[in-house]
Amino acid sequence: MPVSARKPRADRQRNRELLLDTARAAFEAVGPDVSLDEIARRAEVGIGTLYRHFPTRDALVEAVYRREVEALAAAVDSLLTAHRPADALRRWMLLLVDYVAAKKLIAAAWAGPADALYAVSGRLITDSIDRLVSAARTAGDIRADIEAHDLKRLMGGFFAGAAEPGWTDSARRLVDVVVDGLKGPNPR
To answer: Tens digits of per-residue pLDDT, 102-131?
Structure first.
Protein backbone atom coordinates (compact mmCIF):
# COMPACT_ATOMS: atom_id res chain seq x y z
CA MET A 1 0.00 0.00 0.00
CA PRO A 2 1.48 3.40 -0.99
CA VAL A 3 2.35 5.84 1.73
CA SER A 4 0.34 9.03 1.36
CA ALA A 5 1.37 12.45 2.52
CA ARG A 6 -0.01 13.15 5.95
CA LYS A 7 -2.35 16.04 6.39
CA PRO A 8 -0.96 18.65 8.81
CA ARG A 9 -2.40 18.46 12.28
CA ALA A 10 -5.14 21.01 12.90
CA ASP A 11 -3.25 22.71 15.75
CA ARG A 12 -0.13 22.95 13.61
CA GLN A 13 -2.10 24.57 10.79
CA ARG A 14 -3.81 26.97 13.23
CA ASN A 15 -0.41 27.99 14.63
CA ARG A 16 0.94 28.58 11.12
CA GLU A 17 -2.04 30.79 10.19
CA LEU A 18 -1.81 32.61 13.54
CA LEU A 19 1.88 33.31 12.95
CA LEU A 20 1.22 34.56 9.42
CA ASP A 21 -1.58 36.86 10.59
CA THR A 22 0.50 38.11 13.51
CA ALA A 23 3.59 38.67 11.37
CA ARG A 24 1.58 40.62 8.80
CA ALA A 25 0.10 42.82 11.54
CA ALA A 26 3.53 43.30 13.14
CA PHE A 27 5.12 44.26 9.82
CA GLU A 28 2.36 46.85 9.38
CA ALA A 29 2.54 48.20 12.93
CA VAL A 30 6.28 48.08 13.64
CA GLY A 31 7.87 47.74 10.22
CA PRO A 32 9.95 45.14 8.45
CA ASP A 33 12.57 45.10 11.22
CA VAL A 34 10.20 43.75 13.89
CA SER A 35 11.98 40.94 15.74
CA LEU A 36 10.93 37.34 15.43
CA ASP A 37 10.76 37.23 19.23
CA GLU A 38 8.22 40.06 19.12
CA ILE A 39 6.14 38.23 16.51
CA ALA A 40 6.14 35.06 18.63
CA ARG A 41 5.19 37.10 21.72
CA ARG A 42 2.31 38.80 19.90
CA ALA A 43 1.11 35.41 18.63
CA GLU A 44 1.39 34.03 22.17
CA VAL A 45 3.53 31.09 21.04
CA GLY A 46 7.06 30.14 21.88
CA ILE A 47 9.91 31.17 19.61
CA GLY A 48 10.50 27.46 18.92
CA THR A 49 7.01 27.21 17.42
CA LEU A 50 7.77 30.13 15.13
CA TYR A 51 11.07 28.56 14.04
CA ARG A 52 9.44 25.17 13.39
CA HIS A 53 7.16 26.84 10.89
CA PHE A 54 9.57 29.45 9.56
CA PRO A 55 13.24 28.60 10.09
CA THR A 56 14.40 32.06 8.99
CA ARG A 57 13.09 35.63 8.84
CA ASP A 58 13.16 35.36 5.04
CA ALA A 59 10.96 32.26 5.16
CA LEU A 60 8.39 34.13 7.26
CA VAL A 61 8.45 37.25 5.07
CA GLU A 62 8.12 35.08 1.97
CA ALA A 63 5.13 33.20 3.40
CA VAL A 64 3.36 36.43 4.39
CA TYR A 65 4.11 37.96 1.01
CA ARG A 66 2.96 34.89 -0.93
CA ARG A 67 -0.31 34.70 1.01
CA GLU A 68 -1.05 38.38 0.42
CA VAL A 69 -0.43 38.20 -3.32
CA GLU A 70 -2.47 35.00 -3.63
CA ALA A 71 -5.37 36.69 -1.80
CA LEU A 72 -5.13 39.67 -4.14
CA ALA A 73 -5.22 37.38 -7.19
CA ALA A 74 -8.08 35.34 -5.71
CA ALA A 75 -10.21 38.49 -5.35
CA VAL A 76 -10.61 38.71 -9.15
CA ASP A 77 -13.30 36.02 -9.37
CA SER A 78 -15.53 37.49 -6.68
CA LEU A 79 -15.11 41.01 -8.02
CA LEU A 80 -16.03 39.95 -11.56
CA THR A 81 -19.05 38.06 -10.22
CA ALA A 82 -20.33 40.94 -8.11
CA HIS A 83 -19.57 43.96 -10.34
CA ARG A 84 -19.44 45.15 -13.92
CA PRO A 85 -15.95 44.50 -15.29
CA ALA A 86 -14.74 48.12 -15.22
CA ASP A 87 -15.92 48.49 -11.62
CA ALA A 88 -14.29 45.14 -10.74
CA LEU A 89 -11.04 46.45 -12.26
CA ARG A 90 -11.31 49.68 -10.26
CA ARG A 91 -12.03 47.82 -7.02
CA TRP A 92 -9.10 45.45 -7.63
CA MET A 93 -6.78 48.38 -8.30
CA LEU A 94 -7.92 49.96 -5.01
CA LEU A 95 -7.21 46.65 -3.24
CA LEU A 96 -3.74 46.72 -4.75
CA VAL A 97 -3.19 50.26 -3.47
CA ASP A 98 -4.37 49.21 -0.01
CA TYR A 99 -2.05 46.19 -0.01
CA VAL A 100 0.91 48.32 -1.00
CA ALA A 101 0.04 51.02 1.54
CA ALA A 102 -0.33 48.51 4.38
CA LYS A 103 2.38 46.03 3.62
CA LYS A 104 4.98 47.61 1.36
CA LEU A 105 5.72 44.02 0.33
CA ILE A 106 3.80 43.78 -2.93
CA ALA A 107 5.48 46.82 -4.46
CA ALA A 108 8.70 44.83 -4.74
CA ALA A 109 7.07 42.39 -7.17
CA TRP A 110 5.93 45.16 -9.45
CA ALA A 111 9.40 45.80 -10.80
CA GLY A 112 9.80 42.07 -11.44
CA PRO A 113 13.00 41.09 -9.62
CA ALA A 114 14.61 37.88 -10.84
CA ASP A 115 13.87 36.17 -7.52
CA ALA A 116 11.58 33.15 -8.09
CA LEU A 117 9.05 34.28 -5.46
CA TYR A 118 8.67 37.70 -7.04
CA ALA A 119 8.53 36.19 -10.51
CA VAL A 120 5.59 33.95 -9.53
CA SER A 121 3.89 36.80 -7.70
CA GLY A 122 4.44 39.17 -10.60
CA ARG A 123 2.75 36.64 -12.88
CA LEU A 124 -0.22 36.36 -10.49
CA ILE A 125 -0.63 40.13 -10.50
CA THR A 126 -0.21 40.37 -14.27
CA ASP A 127 -2.68 37.52 -14.84
CA SER A 128 -5.18 39.26 -12.56
CA ILE A 129 -4.89 42.53 -14.47
CA ASP A 130 -5.15 40.65 -17.76
CA ARG A 131 -8.37 38.91 -16.71
CA LEU A 132 -9.91 42.15 -15.48
CA VAL A 133 -8.89 44.20 -18.52
CA SER A 134 -10.05 41.46 -20.91
CA ALA A 135 -13.45 41.25 -19.19
CA ALA A 136 -13.84 45.04 -19.22
CA ARG A 137 -12.89 45.26 -22.91
CA THR A 138 -15.27 42.41 -23.82
CA ALA A 139 -18.11 44.12 -21.92
CA GLY A 140 -17.37 47.40 -23.69
CA ASP A 141 -16.65 49.06 -20.35
CA ILE A 142 -13.21 50.29 -21.42
CA ARG A 143 -11.48 51.20 -24.65
CA ALA A 144 -10.79 48.26 -26.96
CA ASP A 145 -7.15 49.23 -27.45
CA ILE A 146 -6.20 48.93 -23.76
CA GLU A 147 -4.07 45.94 -22.82
CA ALA A 148 -3.05 44.60 -19.43
CA HIS A 149 0.60 45.56 -19.89
CA ASP A 150 -0.49 49.18 -20.53
CA LEU A 151 -2.20 49.27 -17.19
CA LYS A 152 0.65 47.49 -15.43
CA ARG A 153 3.13 50.09 -16.75
CA LEU A 154 0.86 52.91 -15.70
CA MET A 155 0.33 51.52 -12.21
CA GLY A 156 4.04 50.95 -11.79
CA GLY A 157 4.35 54.70 -11.49
CA PHE A 158 1.88 54.69 -8.61
CA PHE A 159 4.31 52.81 -6.40
CA ALA A 160 7.29 55.11 -6.86
CA GLY A 161 6.33 57.26 -3.90
CA ALA A 162 4.66 54.62 -1.71
CA ALA A 163 6.73 55.63 1.32
CA GLU A 164 5.81 59.32 1.06
CA PRO A 165 3.15 60.91 3.30
CA GLY A 166 -0.23 61.13 1.61
CA TRP A 167 0.64 58.48 -0.95
CA THR A 168 -2.40 56.29 -0.30
CA ASP A 169 -4.94 59.08 -0.83
CA SER A 170 -3.14 60.21 -3.97
CA ALA A 171 -2.95 56.67 -5.38
CA ARG A 172 -6.65 56.07 -4.70
CA ARG A 173 -7.53 59.30 -6.55
CA LEU A 174 -5.31 58.26 -9.45
CA VAL A 175 -7.11 54.90 -9.69
CA ASP A 176 -10.34 56.80 -10.33
CA VAL A 177 -8.64 59.04 -12.89
CA VAL A 178 -7.17 56.01 -14.67
CA VAL A 179 -10.45 54.07 -14.74
CA ASP A 180 -12.31 57.13 -16.02
CA GLY A 181 -9.69 57.49 -18.76
CA LEU A 182 -9.90 53.81 -19.67
CA LYS A 183 -13.58 54.21 -20.44
CA GLY A 184 -12.87 56.37 -23.44
CA PRO A 185 -15.40 58.60 -25.16
CA ASN A 186 -18.33 56.14 -25.44
CA PRO A 187 -18.44 53.71 -22.51
CA ARG A 188 -21.52 51.53 -22.10
So the answer is: 665 544 444 444 467 667 777 888 899 999
